[in-house]
Amino acid sequence: MPSLLRRLARLTALLALLAGAASAQSTGRLVGTVTEAGTARPLADVNVALVGSDRGAVTDADGRFDLDVPVGTVTLRASSVGYSDADETLTVRAGETTRVVLVLVSTDADLGEVVVEGRLTNLVGVANAASSGLVGQAQIAVRPLLRVGEVLETVPGAIVTQHSGSGKANQFFLRGFNLDHGTDFAASVDGVPMNLPTHAHGQGYLDLNFLIPELVETVAFEKGPQNAAAGDFATAGRAEIRLVRRLDAGLAEAEAGSDDFVAALVADSWRLGRGDLLVALRGQYTDGPWVQPENGTLASGVLKYSTGSTRNGLEVTAMGYHNDWTATDQIARRAVPGLVTRFGTLDATNGGTTGRYTLAGTWRRSTDAGQRTRATAYAAAYHLNLFSNFTYFLDDPDQGDQFEQADRRAYAGADVAHSWRMGGIGRASETTVGADLRHDQIFGVGLFRTSARERVGTVRDDEVAQTRGGAYVSNETRWTEWLRTTLGLRGDVYAFDVTSDREVNSGGETAFIASPKVGLALGPWAETEVYLNAGLGFHSNDARGTVIAVDPATGEAVDPVDPLVRTRGAEVGARTAAVDGLQSTVALWALELESELVFVGDAGGTEPSDASRHVGVEWTNFYRATDWLQLALDVALTRSRYTAGESDGDRIENSIGRVVTGGVYAGRPDGWIASLQVRHLGPRPLTADGAFQAEASTLVNARVGTTLGPVAVALDVLNLLDSDAADVSYLYTSRLPGEPAAGVEDVHFHPVLPRSARLSAALRF
pLDDT tens, 70-125? Predict the structure, then answer.
C-alpha cells in the first residue's frame, strides 16, 4: 500500500509538471505602462483588460502593469474614468515578454476637454449619453453661415432663425421646443453663462451675436436634464462654447456681399511672459434686403491670456460687444403685396441697441493622483433697448402700438468643481463635487409705450436683485469592462427681490429644488455602446412674475407664478464607431414640463400654459469617407403636446415635428474646398387645434474656396435655391390702418433672406 501511494504521488507530480510546461507554451507575458496624452505622466489605478476575456490588471503608482495572456493576436484595452479608452492589438508569443505603452486622452470630466477633431472624435467609452457630443472648428470653418448664431446649428437637431433685426437674439428651436430667445436651452462661452433671467424681452434671453466663429475651438453639447452639472434653462439642452487659447498664425479677413454686407476680422497671438495673448477684433455692417435699410452696425472683440495647459493652467478672457440696428419685424400676411412687399415694414422705426462686456478667469489643476480642480469666476455688464411693434394700430389707433423693452444689469458669479478617483469601487470610479453662484443686479427692466422710439407711457419699470446658488455631486463608476453607471444629485436655491413702480407688484420670494440624475452605459461591444439616462431638471420663471399681484397693462388682479418649474427627462440610445470613419448615434427621448409658466415681456404680465410632453427620436451621422470628403446627416422627429387643460386643442404652437439637416464637405484646408449644407424644417402648428400651420421649408447654402499659400478665398451662396419660405410664423390679432377696431386674426411672418452671395479673403501671417 505505501508503494502504491508513492507511485500515485510521483504520477501526480509528473502530471503537474507536464501541465505547467504546456501552460508555459500556451501563454505569454505583457508588461506595460499607461500614460496620459500630452503630459506623458504615468497613470495609476487604470483598468487594463484583455478584450473578450476576464483577464485583467490595475496599474500601480508608476502606471505599470504585468499580465499573463494567451498566445496569438490579442486586443488590450486600458480604461479609466475621466479618460477615453485606449486599445492596442498585439501578437503574443509563447513564453515571451511583450512590452507596450498605452496612452489615454483626458476628458477632464466634460466633453470640451477632449483633444478633438470635432464630430469625428470617437466618444465611445467617453460620453455618458447618446445625445451628447462635440463640434470642432473643423466643422464650423467649412460651413457657410448666414448669422454667427448659426454656430449652434452644428448641434444636431438645433435650428437658429431670426424674426427681427440682426441685433436681436436669435430664435431657437430644439426637440420640439419653441425656445423663443433661449428659454430651456443654456449656453456659456469660456465659462460665462449667456442666458439672462428676468430679462426685458424674454426669460433666459440668449444673445450670441457677439461670437467670432473663427475663434470657436469646440462646442460641447448635451440634450436633456440628465447631467448634474446642468442647472437652469438646460431642459432641452445646453452648449459649452470654448474659444481657442492661441492662433497658429495671425489672421486678417475681409468679407463683402449682397445687400451691402461687409465684415472684417483681425486676430493674432503673441507669446507674453509665460503665456499666450490672443487679440481679435471684428466689425460688421449690413442693410439686408429690406425696404427700410437695416443699418446694422456690430463690433465685437476678444482679449485672452492663457498660461500652462488646459489641464494645468490659467485663462483670463475679456469680451466686448456693441450692436445697433433698424429692424423689419414680422409682417401680417394680408398686408402683402397690398401695403408692403415681403421685405417691407409696417413700422420703420423698430430696432434697437445692445451691448455686453464680460471678464472671466478659469483656473485648472490636475495631480498625478488623478485629482482635478477647476474654478471659474466672471463678471458682466449688459444693456438693451429694443423697439418692436407687432400689432401695429390695435391698441393705439393714433400713435401706433410700438413699445420699448429696456434692460440694464450687471451680473457676476463663480463655478467650481473638484474630481477625484476612488479605489475599491468597481474597476474605476470618479466622484465630482461642484458648486456655482450667480447674482444679477438689474438696475432697470421695463416696458414702455413708444412712438418712433420716443416714450409716451410706462407699462411697468422695475429693479430686481436675483441670486442663485447651486451644488451637485456625481459619481461615475466602471463596474466591469462593459458596465458604467453615473449617479448625480443637484440642489438649487433662488432668492428674488423686486422693487416695482407699483408697490403692489413689489416683494421677495425664495425657492429650492432638488434634481436627481441617473445614467447607465453598456459596452462597448464592437465599438458600440448603449445608454440609458433619466433625470429631473427645472427652469426658473421671471422674478417679476413670482411676486406680481396686478397686471400692469389691464389693472386686473393676477396670481403669481411658481418660481421654479419641474422638468423631467429620459433617454435610451446607442453610439457606434464600428464602421471605420463613421460616428453615428440614435436616441429615443422624452421630456415633460409641469408647466411652462412664463413672464411675457411683450405684455408686461404673466401668461400660464399647461403641462406638456415632448417625445422623439434623433439619428445623427458624421462620416469621413476619404481624407478629403466628409458627409453629415442628422434627422430629428418629435411629437409635442399639451397634456392637460387645453380645451381647444393640445398642439404646442411652433413646435417643429421634423428637422433634417445634412452636408457634403469636400477638399483639404491647404487646397480647394467645397461644401453644401441643407436644412429642412417640417410643418409646425400655429394654433392649439392645428387649424393653422406654418409650411415646411428647405434651405440650401453652399461654399467654394481655395488656399494659395497664406491667402484663402471663399465664396458663400446663401439660400442657393432662392426659397421664399418664412423664417418664423405666428398667428395673432393685429390692426392695419383702416381696419375694424377689434383687428384681424392673421398669420404674421418674417421671410428668409433671398439668395445672396458673400466673397471673403483671408490672409494668414
Answer: 888 888 888 877 677 788 888 888 878 888 888 887 665 445 455 557 888 888 88
Q: Which residues of 534-553 are buried (b: 16+ CB within 10 A; e: fewer)?
A: bbbbbbbbbbbbbbbebbbe
Give the pairing type, strands 97-106 and 27-36.
parallel
Kindly report the number of other CB atoms within 10 A of residue 40's CB atom: 10
* Pair 93, 74: CB distance under 8 Å: no
Strand partners, 581: none
Torsions phi, psi for 625 (to 5 deg)? -70, -45
- What is the rounded average pLDDT of the residues 405-433? 91
What is the distance in angstroms between the CA of the first residue and the CA of the last residue of the chain? Answer: 95
Spatial separation of the C-alpha atoms in residues 358 and 28, rounded to whole Å: 59
**pLDDT in the model for residue 8:** 42
From the number of C-beta atoms within 10 Å of its C-beta (0-12, 13-18, 19+), residue 710 rates as exposed
pLDDT in tens, 616-670: 999 999 999 998 999 999 999 999 999 876 567 889 889 999 999 999 999 987 8
Strands 237-243 vs 185-189: parallel, antiparallel or unpaired: parallel
348 and 327 Cβ atoms separated by less than 8 Å? no
Question: Given pLDDT bands bounded at 50, 70 and 90, which one contains residue 601?
Answer: very low
pLDDT digits (tens, 9 = 90+) for 515-527: 999 999 999 998 9
Rounded Cα distance between 232 and 194, Å, is 12
Distance, CA of 87 to CA of 66 (rounded, Å): 16
DSSP string, 537-551: EEEEPPHHHHH--B-
Q: Which residues contact 337 (CB under 8 A, 6 or more apart)?
A: none
Percent of all residues in the chain with a pLDDT value above 70, rounded to a whole number: 93
Cβ-contact 214, 194 below 8 angstroms:
no
Radius of gyration for the alpha carbons in the chain, expressed in angstroms and rounded: 29
Q: Indicate if the alpha-carbon torsion angle 247, 252, 258, 260 is positive or negative.
A: positive
Distance, CA of 695 to CA of 700 (rounded, Å): 17
Contact between residue 247 and residue 264 where contact means Cβ atoms under 8 Å apart: no
Could you give the CA distance from residue 623 to residue 565 in angstroms, rounded to a whole number? Answer: 39
pLDDT at 14: 41
Q: Which residue has the cell 439686408?
A: 288
Q: What is the average per-residue pLDDT within 128-153?
A: 93
Torsion of CA 24, 25, 27, 33, to 10 degrees: 80
